[in-house]
Amino acid sequence: MNRYGLLAFLLISTFLTISAQKSKIEFEEYDLPNGLHVILHQDSSTPIVAVSVLYHVGSKNERSDRTGFAHFFEHLMFEGSKNIPRGDYFQLVQGNGGNLNANTSFDRTFYYEILPSNQLGLALWLESERMLHLQIDSVGVETQRKVIKEEKKQRLDNQPYGSILEQTFKRAYSVHPYQWTPIGSDQYIDQATIDEFMDFYKTYYVPNNATLSISGDIKIEEAKYLIETYFSEIPKGSRKMNIPNVVEPPLTKAIQDTVYDNIQLPAVIQSYRIAPQGTADFYALEMLTTYLSQGKSSILKKALVDDKQSAVFTGAFPLPMEDEGQFLMFSIANMGTSVQDLQHQMDSIISYVQSNTMDENSFQKLQNQVVSNFVEQTSTQAGIAEALANYHVFFDEANLINTEIDKYLSVTPQQISDVAKKYLNLNGRVVLHYLPKSAQKN
Amino acid sequence: MKNIKFLLFSAFVFISMFAQVDRTYPPKPGIAPKINIGEAESFTLENGLKVFVVENHKIPKVTFSFDFDYQFATEGEKTGLSEITGELIGTGTESKSKSEIDESVDFIGANINSTSRGISGSVLSKFTEYYFSILSDVILNAKFEQSELEKLQKQTVSGLKSEEAEPNAIASKVTNSLIFGKKSPYGEIKTEQTVKSITLDDVKTFYKNNFVPNVTYLAIVGDIDKNQAEKLVNKYLAKWQKGEVTKSEFEFARQPFVRKVAVVDRPNAVQSVIHVATPLKFKQDSKDLFAAKVANSIFGGGFTSRLNLNLREKHGFTYGVRSSLMQDELMGSLDISCEVRNSVTDSSLSEILSEMKKMRNELVSSKELDAIKKYMVGSFALSLEQPETIAKFAINIAKYNLPTDFYETYLEKIEKVTAEDVQAVSKKYLDPEKIHLIVVGSNDQVGENLKKLSPNGKINYYDTYGNEVDISAKNLPTDITAEQVVDKYYEAIGGKEKISQVKDEQVIMKGNVQGYDLEITISRKFPNKFYFLLDIGIMQQIQKYDGKNAMVSGMQGEKILEGEELETMKIESEMNSLLRAKELGIELKLVGIEDVNGKKAYKIDVVKPKNNITTEYYDISTGLKLQEISTRNTEQGQFTTTIVYGEYKDFNGYKFPGTISQSVAGQSFDLTVESYIVNSGLEDGIFVVETQQESSF
C-alpha cells in the first residue's frame, strides 16, 4: 500500500457521515385542482430564481411516422402565445436580465428560466401563457423546421461520431418507440403540420401532465399566490395520451454492424439493454459504470488508455430511461489499434467485472466517487429545480434529492458483478464499428 | 414579515378574482434585488504565490485552481510543448508513480485536471488536506518519465488525426492562425511533427522555467475558510521555489487591409462552419471596453442578438450564431461563428456583413440598448451564483492590473454607455471590409458563390493545419496533358497549322478608364518583335522590343530596359510562344480544373525562364483561353494581373476575344477589341528601339 493509500484508509472511518453533512434541501409540494404539480424550494443565498416546467412527454410518445415531433414542438413553444407576440419570449426574459432554454429527451420535455428574484411573476406569466395560450403560425413553423434541420446537421450529420445514439437505438429496439431518437428524421420533420401540433398541444401540454418546480430566493406564500393567479384557470386535459405499452422482446443474438462516418479514428460501440431508471438494478449499473470508467484509475481507462494504449477515449454510460434503456460502452481507437483488438479488450474487461467481485479498497473508492458526484447536482438553483421535478415525475418522490444517495450506498460489490452478468450479455447486444469513410469498399 | 402578511392577506382577498388577472401584460416586477459581489480574501506567500479564497458552504466541496500566468511565447518547431508539459504534470512525482497518484485521487472521489496554463480539481471538503497534499506534491515535485511522454505524444497525435475530421476544431485552428498569425503563440498549430520533436529535456526545462509561484494565482473556493486555507497553503506550498520570469517577444498578425476569403475543403460536409474574424487593437485596459461589450452583445451576444434574430429566427439558416469579443493584456479579437447548411453559406456571410454595416451606420434604439443593458446586468448577477466567479474577478484584477473597483463599478459603467458610444465602437471594431471570412465546408458546393464576397474574386484555400494549399491540384485530370490543352486552344482559334504560319498580327482595343477614353494597339512580328501603344490623348505609353533591345516610355520619360527587365521583355515578346514551348524553354504544367465564371477550365501553369509563372485557364468544352493570372515583381512591389477574355469573335478566320478586361492592384478596366488583323505585312520600323549609344553616333 502506498503512502496515500494508507492515509486514505485512515480517513475512511469518517466517510460514512458525509452524506448527512450535505445540507438538506427543504421543499414544499402540492397539486392545483387542475392537476398541475408544484414544487417550491426557498434559498436566499443569491437573489435569483429558477423556474421550470417539466412536461411528461418525449420522443417515445410520438407516432412512428412523426419522429422528431416532440422536439419540433419544443421549439414552437418559444414562438409566442395569445398575449406574447412571436419572438418576445426571448426578449422578455433576456431583456429582464435572465436566461432561458429547453430540452427534449426520450421521456420528457423541460423548460426553464433563470431570472433575478424580483421577476418570478414574469417567469410564471410566460410559462402559464405557454400552457394556456400557445399560438403558432406558418412563419414560425417553417422557420423552426429549417432551424431544427440545422440543429440535426450540427449535432449528428456533420459531427464525427454524432450519429452513435441514432445508429445504436434503431438496432437495439424493434417495437418500442425508443428505436428513434428525439431529433427524429428530416422526412417527418418536413411532414408535420400545424393541426398536428395543436392536437399534440391539447393532449400533452396540460397541467395534469406538467410539474412546475421553482428554486431560489422566493417567498413561499407570494410564490403560491402568483402560481394560483396564473395557472389555476388552465383547464385540465382530458385527451388520451399515447403512452407506449409494448414489451420489447430481448435480443436473442448479437447485432453487429459497421457504420462509415466522416471520422479519422475508428471506434467501437457496444450497447446492452438494461433495467429502467430507479430500479435496484439500475443503481447497481450506475455503480458499475463508475467502477468501469470514472477517473484515470478506473479499470477501463487504466487498461485501454494507460496500459495498452489502445484507446484515446473510453467510457461507459447507462442511459437512465423510463422503460428499459441502454448501457453504452464507447471507445475510440488510438493510432495503430484495430477495431477487432479494441473490441476484444473491451470484452475482456466485461468478463473481468462479471467474474470478479471488487475488493474492499475499490468498493470504498466507488462509494466516495458516487457521493462526490451526488452533491454536485445541488450546487445551482437550476440544478435543484430540475432534480426535484425529475424525482417527482419519474420516481414519484421529490425527496430523493436528499435520500437517493442511500440507494447508491446500499449497493453491494456482489450486486455490481451480478448486474454485470445479468445485463452485459454478449449475445444480446448491439456492436457497432465506426470506420472512416475512406475504409468503405464500393 | 410585514410583506408576507400583506401578501397572505391579498391572496385571500383576490382568490375569487383569479380569472380576472390581466394576461395581456407582463406582471410588474418587485423591487430589484441588490447585487452583492461576494468578497474574496487574499494573501501572498513569500515566494510570490497569490492566493484568493472564497468561502461558500452550499455543498461540502472545495475547488482549487492554479493559474500559471507565465509569459506567452512562440513554440515554433516544438509547438505543443506547453500543452504536453501541463498534461504531464500529474503523471509522476519524486516519490509516486502515475498509477499511485491516479488511484489516490480517485479514491476520495476527487479529480485533477491539468492543462498548459492551469491545474485544477475539486474534492469533498472532508478530504481537503489529503487532496491538497497530493496536488502540491504533483506541482512541486513533478517528475517526468520518457514512457509517459511517449504515451502522451501518441495520444496527442491520435487526437490531431481525429481533429482532422472535426469541422469545429479545424475552423477554430485555422481562424486563430489567420487572425493571430502562425508565428504567434495564439495562432501556432501543433502537428504530428512538432509534437514528436518534443524531448524529455524540453519538458523539464519548460516546467522549471515557467511553473513557478511568482507568476501563479491560486483560487480556493467552497467549503473552507481563510484560516484553514492559509494554514494549508503555508504548510504545503511555502517551500515552492521562486523562479526567473522570462520575457518573450512575438508578432501578431494585423487586421487585413481588405476582406479575405479562406476555405478549408471538406468534400462530404453537409454543413459549413463559418467564422468571420479579425484581430483587433483592443486590450483589457481599452477606454472603450464597456461600449464594445455592449455593442457586441447587441450584435451577437445572446439569443436576442441581431445576428441570431436574423440568421436563425428570420432566415432559419442556422441553429445559432454568436459573436465573441476577446481581449487580454496584449491584444483582442472579434470572432463571429455559426454552422449553416451548404446552400446558404454565402447568404449567411452576406447577412453577417450587412449586420456589421448596420451597426456602423445606424444608432441603436433606446429600447434595444436598454434591453441589452438589462440582459448584461442580469447575466452578471446570475454569474455570481457560482462562487468561482468571485474568485475569477479577484484574480483578473490582480492579473490585468485593473482598478480595484473594476467589478464593483462594472454595472455602472455598462449603464453609462450611450447609443453614440455603441456606434463609435462599431465603426472602430466592426469593419466588414477588413475581416477574414473562414469557411470549413464542401468547396464543390459552396466555393463558387463565395468568390463574390472576395474583393478580388479570389479564395485562399487551407488545409486543416492552416497551410495554404492549391485546391485545384486535387482535381488533377489524368486523361489529358498540358500540351494537349494548348494544342486544343490553337485548333480552336484557327488551327495549329495556320497559326504557326502567322508572320505578324495587330490588335486595336478601346476602353475608358477614370473618365478618359483610351486606345491600345499591340503589334507583333515573328518571332519576337513587339510593340505596345497606350494612348489616352493627354499621354502615351509605349513599350517596344525589336528582337535585341527593349524600351518603355511614358510620362516619366524613356527608359531602355536592361538585365532582368530586358530578359523578361524578351520572353514576353515571343509570338505564339506556347507553340514553341520546348524550344523557348517554357515548361507547361497541368495543375487542375477550376471554375472560371461558371465554366469548367483546365488550369495550366506556364513557367517561363527566370521562373516567371503565368497561370492560364482553358475552357474544357471549347478549348478557348478564358483567363490568365500573372504575378510579377517590380520595383514598386509585387503585382498580380488578371486578364479575363470575353466572348470570342471571328476576325477573317481567326478567333480573338471581343472583349478583354484586365485588373491589376485592385484597378480594373474593360477593353473592346476594335480590330484584329493578321499577316498585314507590318514593317520592322515600328519595332525599332534606338538605344542611347546608337543615337549618339
Name the CATH superfamily classification of the largest domain in chain B.
Lipoprotein localisation LolA/LolB/LppX
In total, the number of domains of chain B comes to: 3
List the chains of the largest interface with their residue counts. Answer: A-B, 108 and 99 residues
**Can you give the helix content of chain A as a percent range?**
40-55%
Unreliable residue runs of chain A? 1-21
* Shape by Cα distribution of chain A: globular
| Helix residue percentage of chain B | 25-40%
* Number of helical elements of chain B: 22
* Poorly predicted spans of chain B: 1-19, 693-697
Percent of residues in beta strands of chain B: 25-35%
* Structure classification of chain A: alpha+beta
Terminal CA distance of chain B: 116 Å
| Count of extended strands of chain A | 11
Write the layout of secondary structure elements.
The complex is a heterodimer of chains A (442) and B (697).
Chain A: H1 3-15, H2 18-21, E1 28-31, E2 37-42, E3 48-55, H3 69-76, H4 88-94, E4 99-104, E5 109-116, H5 120-132, H6 138-157, H7 164-172, H8 186-191, H9 194-204, E6 210-216, H10 220-231, E7 255-261, E8 267-274, H11 280-293, H12 299-307, E9 311-318, E10 325-333, H13 339-355, H14 360-376, H15 381-395, H16 400-409, H17 413-423, E11 429-436
Chain B: H1 2-14, E1 41-44, E2 50-55, E3 61-68, H2 81-88, H3 98-107, E4 113-115, E5 118-124, H4 128-140, H5 146-163, H6 167-180, H7 192-196, H8 200-210, E6 216-222, H9 226-237, E7 260-265, E8 271-280, H10 289-300, H11 306-314, E9 318-327, E10 332-341, H12 345-361, H13 366-383, H14 387-399, H15 410-416, H16 419-429, E11 436-441, H17 443-450, E12 460-462, E13 468-469, H18 482-493, H19 496-500, E14 504-513, E15 516-525, E16 529-535, E17 540-545, E18 550-554, E19 557-560, H20 563-573, H21 581-584, E20 587-596, E21 599-608, E22 612-619, E23 625-634, E24 637-645, E25 648-651, E26 654-657, E27 659-664, E28 667-678, H22 692-695
Parallel strand pairs in B: 2-6, 7-11, 7-12
Antiparallel strand pairs in B: 1-2, 3-5, 3-6, 4-5, 8-10, 8-11, 9-10, 12-13, 14-15, 14-28, 15-16, 16-17, 17-18, 18-19, 20-21, 21-22, 22-23, 23-24, 24-27, 25-26, 27-28
